[in-house]
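The instructor's notes for this session suggest beginning with a concrete chain rather than abstract definitions. Hand out the sequence below and ask the class to guess, before any prediction is shown, which regions might be ordered.
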Amino acid sequence: MSSLQVLLVAGTHGNEINAPWLFDQWDQNPGMIDTYNLKICRVIGNPLAYQKRERYVDRDLNRSFSHELLSSLDRNDHEIFRARNLIKEYGPQGFNPSKIVIDFHSTTASMGSSLVVYGRRPVDLALASLVQNRLGLPIYLHECEPSQKGFLVESWPCGFVVEIGPVPQGVLHTQIIDQILLVLGSCLKEISKCKNGSAAFPSQIIVHRHLKNIDFPRDLQGKPIALIHPSLQGKDWYPIKNDYPLFRKLNGENITFSNDSMESEVYPVFINEAAYVEKNIAMAITAKQVLSFQEDWKNDLFNLFSQ
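After discussion, reveal the predicted structure:
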């Protein structure tokens, strides 16, 4: 049995119920999923929110892991308290320490199965490259958005988010469960290969690098005045160019994309994501980028196993 523990998290958002349901089935049938002789720990990220079937109680748990919030003595929101406890229990120096974390989420957007990597930690890119090479999943590289920080996986030495959709919030869905099982099994198998030295890393990794978020057009009272354009709805990961219609008003007027980036075409993701309404995000804009695999990525990942 490996001394390196892998932490699997579900229910970071309480109304994303498919992965927590799968974890519950797994608890009742411990042999149902091959763990490839890895030491696994499963945890519900936000049990109270999951019990209530709400995204969170006081604030978004997946934005509650910043140093500022964790160290603040005057912040006692439920999610900050939970974040502190998760790190105390399962963090790298915790009572039950883990070095790798995989955080399972679902989305209402037509994202299919994808990985979300925060920043450019070499170990994250190395592990994500193995999963992408195995399953062909797109990777959303989230960076350059100062207002969006404090993500759960950043508090562990290595980790990423698995996003699977589309599925409405609070709805169990057979296809979503099947996709979680597929991605989960692939992640564990690739980690196991790293453990025994048989991992075959690709020569490159394809990422969709976050550029910016776009909100709905709004009136002076802050209310949306247009809808996602029908030609864009459900087209996450598809390229668009300048002047592509993003929104449509009820009178038929289109509001088009104004490309202020250096990219000739960009890729919208999380289009019309229900959870992002409160964040005033109608979609995120990304640029497709091919990164050459670096030898130090692999070395850093292997070093994680030997520490």
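Then share the key points. Residues 224 and 244 are 19 Å apart (CA to CA). The chain has a mean pLDDT of 95.
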